[in-house]
Specification:
With 411 residues, the protein is mostly helical. It has one domain. 67% of the residues lie in helices and 0% in strands. The protein has 16 helices and no strands.
């Protein structure tokens, strides 16, 4: 028998199937290569192109209803506005434009759907697992911090581990399967162990308080279990700290740096951060409303360090690629109250998007981690880290949308 014409695929169906396959690949590919400098830009461009072909711009009105999308657009718009009173393009060597990478959340979230979700998750898992294996190998077998082939320094790797710890404990706390819960606890413990063997102090100072906050919220209605889990985590942290030469060496160095800083020696890690904090706050006080302009961190530091405390910190001005090692202060120096408000609105939007999809606990943990990590460095320009956080957020949101009740967060 001849096929009926109605049974044949229409051109429209063929185009949709092609676009759907390309979208799946783009999501999968982005999850893998977001760790590779250079390739991540290509993957982001591919994602944006597929988003356009998929009709994403026509749905922007719907997408912008997500608080995080609106917050990202306002944050990036404020940075672009700040160019008007900066010395752009000669506004310092620090590449503030990396903040614009946050906008990748828009096409990524728009392209996600129930049938594409597994591809996005697979890409995220494959990419994270590959980087984790490489980082573990370089540290324990070669004695190297970070991952040189990926140009990934130890701070980035440690932040990646911290995010994994938070997410694994969160999934364990919301799982109804005891075996899965145990496996996730063990995996989180393994990640935390590796993190304690990295040189990064700031990421640890973000991970540990966030972890205890997360455990408290997850098990707040089960007091005995909460105390038991917290006790187990505290013991594990104590063991990891005691047996980690890296952690102990960095703790001793921090104490030594602090003593030298009090004696007027600024060319240490702690001394530089103290200088950035004090001079940064002083610079904001000088231009509190609109700051010095986008990208003006180096010039603002040099100007204010000359006069602040009789030039005590002016020798730090030669620091390569100077920035203020603090997301909030960085935005305050750039744009004053406008910048700090945009940053606060970004964190608020992040939380509100997750809260709107019944992911309040996850939203609290992620925003807490971002804020604490941002107190010791400008993590929003570490391309891999905000991309990882945004991908996790988008996947969690779409998972909740497409799977009914989805993750149950009740403690």
């Amino acid at each position: 028998m001849h096929e009926k014409l109605t049974d044949l695929p229409s051109p429209t169906q063929g185009v949709y199937a092609w676009r759907n396959m390309v979208a799946k690949f783009a999501l999968f590919f982005f999850g893998i290569v977001l760790w590779c400098k250079g390739l991540d830009i290509f993957a982001g461009s591919l994602l944006a192109l597929v988003w356009v072909l998929d009709g994403g711009p026509h749905q922007l009105g719907q997408t912008i209803k997500e608080p995080l999308v609106l917050a990202i657009l306002i944050f990036c718009a404020a940075l672009l506005l700040g160019i008007l009173w900066s010395d752009y393009p000669n506004s310092g060597r620090f590449r503030w434009g990396k903040y614009m990478g946050l906008m990748i959340f828009i096409p990524y979230l728009s392209l996600l759907s129930k049938e594409r979700l597994s591809w996005a998750i697979s890409g995220l898992v494959v990419g994270y697992s590959g980087v984790l294996l490489m980082g573990t190998y370089y540290h324990f077998f070669l004695g190297v911090q970070g991952i040189p082939p990926l140009k990934m320094v130890y701070l980035h790797f440690s932040l990646m581990l911290g995010i994994g710890v938070i997410l694994a404990f969160y999934l364990a706390g919301t799982s109804n399967n005891k075996k899965v819960e145990l496996l996730l606890w063990l995996f989180a413990g393994f990640l935390l162990f590796i993190q304690f063997n990295q040189n990064g102090r700031g990421p640890l100072l973000a991970t540990v308080p966030t972890l205890f906050l997360l455990l408290f919220i997850l098990y707040r209605t089960q007091i005995k279990k909460m105390l038991g889990v917290m006790a187990a985590v505290t013991i594990a942290i104590g063991i990891f700290a005691y047996h980690s030469d890296n952690f102990q060496a960095r703790a001793v160095q921090a104490k030594s740096d602090l003593e030298l800083s009090q004696q007027g020696e600024n060319q240490t890690s702690v001394g530089q951060r103290r200088a950035f904090l004090e001079v940064g706050l002083h610079a904001i006080a000088q231009r509190p409303w609109f700051g010095y302009g986008t990208g003006m961190a180096k010039r603002a530091f040099e100007e204010n360090a000359e006069t602040y405390k009789d030039g005590r910190y002016k020798d730090v001005g030669s620091f390569y690629n100077l920035h203020f090692h603090n997301d909030l202060i960085e935005m305050g120096v750039y744009l004053g109250v406008l910048g700090m408000s945009a940053y606060a609105f970004l964190l608020w939007g992040w939380f509100q998007t997750l809260r709107a999809h019944r992911l309040t606990i996850l939203g609290t943990a992620l925003v807490c981690f971002i804020f604490l990590a941002g107190l010791t460095d400008v993590i929003l320009i570490y391309g891999q880290i905000p991309s990882l956080l945004l991908v996790i957020t988008a996947i969690a949101v779409v998972w909740q949308k497409e799977n009914g009740a989805g993750i149950k967060e009740s403690g």
